[in-house]
Amino acid sequence: MKCQDVRRFLYAFNDGALEVKDNLEILGHLNMCPHCAARADADQQLKERLGKAFAAETAPASLRENLTKQLRPAAGIRRAHWLVRLSPALATAAVLLLALGFWWTREPEKSAAPDTNALAALDTERPIAAKELAAAFHAGHLQCSAKGRAHHRKDLSRHLPKLQQQLSSEFDIEVLAPNWHSESLRFVSACTCGMPDGTEGAHLVYERLHVQTASIYTLRPTGLFDSFERDIVDGDEYRVAHSEGLNLVSWRGRSAEYLLCANGDPGRNDALIRDLVTPIRIALGDTPADPLGDLVLARAETAEAVTRLFCVAPAPAMVLLGGDCWITTPSRF
Amino acid sequence: MRASKSLSFERVAMPHLDAVYRVARRLADNEAEAEDLVQEAFLRAFRAFDRFELRTYGAKPWLLRILHNTYYTRRQRANREPTLLDDVDFDCFTGELEPELLERWPDALPDWDAFDGELKNAVAQLPAEYRTVLLLWAFEDLSYKEIATVCNCKIGTVMSRLYRARQILSQRLAAYVAERNLASGSSDV
């Protein structure tokens, strides 16, 4: 490739908008041509600088107040719990959300700079204990052990079917690699990670609009999550972790909040969730009388309501279906 | 009902107020106009909230699109309609640009802090269509597809406008550097 050819597509290259083959060709040229490389760097710096130059600009407080006044009806409204308001409890498609701490080893800078809106929402809308639980769990309870032969190996395929094959054949990790493109989620990357007991798993990262980040962690059956493995709940079989591996999805929205979803009968799920949460809370020295009492809890009765939940909330995560463990999205209920 | 709707809307829309305002501020001539623009856009969004398909694009592009439409509607009303570019095919577009425009772009850049004022001026002077895509790209970090959704145009148009906006900015900054001898040695191949 000549300089002129490269420069035609340099911006698209910087923006990640080219096909892999074109990317590689341009990358090859940049490695050899300092002038084009300097141009590429300058463009990236320009974008960063533009972002910084205006990033501090926020809407005036008066505008926010005016809008809030106009949006709310004249009569005083108590801020009801928005999640609960979404849905009366019915059995068809119940969704439970609860804050669940889960370790996160990738992109620590994002954790260090949580989205203020998300945290504000947590502070005002959600029980504080849920946030603390998640944060504590995130910080200390289940950190990546950095063990394992392939820890943090990042050269995994970005092609989901190939990734699935690669993890299965090379690492003996059964992985679910859903294509969530239709949900505006872009698959970003995958890496392998070690658990405290040395077990290896795979971390799949998805992004929506560069704001919401979803991570699927999948690993082979491990004793670490024994307390999660409940076969029988109220007489019904739930296979949370079996030969398919245990799959957890954590959603961050740049906050330290993690959510777990399940569908099915609300009462039945309460029992399941209680069994999942209690040992975590005990481990954290947090032993409320009712482990679910101060956790975020929401139910939705229709697929539409669940979809709204999916989009409005930091989003659902793991869907446990009777008889098997699935990662899915609400639109597929 | 209204209470429920307004709470839901607040939950969805208000977190994006700063982002919408930032874009509005760069589109509008002054602060007051920007606030007015945002207010109208949010009220329009609220009225349309029942029809809002969140799942497709997410709240921010949706709000920005309403802002974009509000802005252009106002400009039309005020007979200040910006000159809209035709949809340009990216391949046809880029061929005519490089490398002449950036001959003077220095390989080694000086401290960017020296450029902030110039950069803001350069952004302000961009045509509105370029400014919009640049704002969405640089400040809000939207993808080409998302920008196309917001601006209701083709991805090729987004790419060509963004291409030209970056070229204009780079050219201005290169000239700025050259005038002040802030960096030495410009080269090209």
Number of helices of chain B: 10
SS-based structural class of chain B? mainly alpha
Q: Report the C-alpha radius of gyration of chain A, rounded.
A: 22 Å
- Order of helices and strands of chain B, N to C? HHHHHHHHHH
Arithmetic mean of pLDDT of chain B? 72
Q: Report the average pLDDT across residues of chain A.
A: 50
Q: What is the percentage of strand-forming residues of chain A? A: 5-15%
General form of chain B: elongated
Proportion of residues in helical segments of chain B: 55-70%
Oligomer: heterodimer
Q: Can you list the strand order of the major beta sheet of chain A?
A: 2-3-4-7
Q: Kindly report how far apart the N and C termini of chain A lie.
A: 49 Å
Major sheet size, sense and barrel closure of chain A: 4 strands, antiparallel
Describe, in plain words, how this protein is organized in 3D:
The complex is a heterodimer of chains A (333) and B (189). With 333 residues, chain A is an alpha+beta fold. Chain A contains 12 helices and 10 strands. Chain A has helices spanning 3-8, 10-14, 20-32, 34-55, 61-71, 82-85, 108-112, 116-125, 128-141, 160-171, 266-283, 303-312, and strands spanning 98-99, 186-194, 200-208, 212-219, 232-233, 236-237, 246-251, 259-260, 319-321, 324-326. In chain A, strand 9 (319-321) and strand 10 form a beta hairpin. The longest helix of chain A has 22 residues, at 34-55. Chain B starts with a helix and ends in a 9-residue tail after the last helix. The chains are: A alpha+beta (333), B mainly alpha (189). At the A-B interface, helix 1, helix 4, helix 5, helix 8 and helix 12 of A face helix 1, helix 2, helix 3, helix 4 and helix 5 of B.
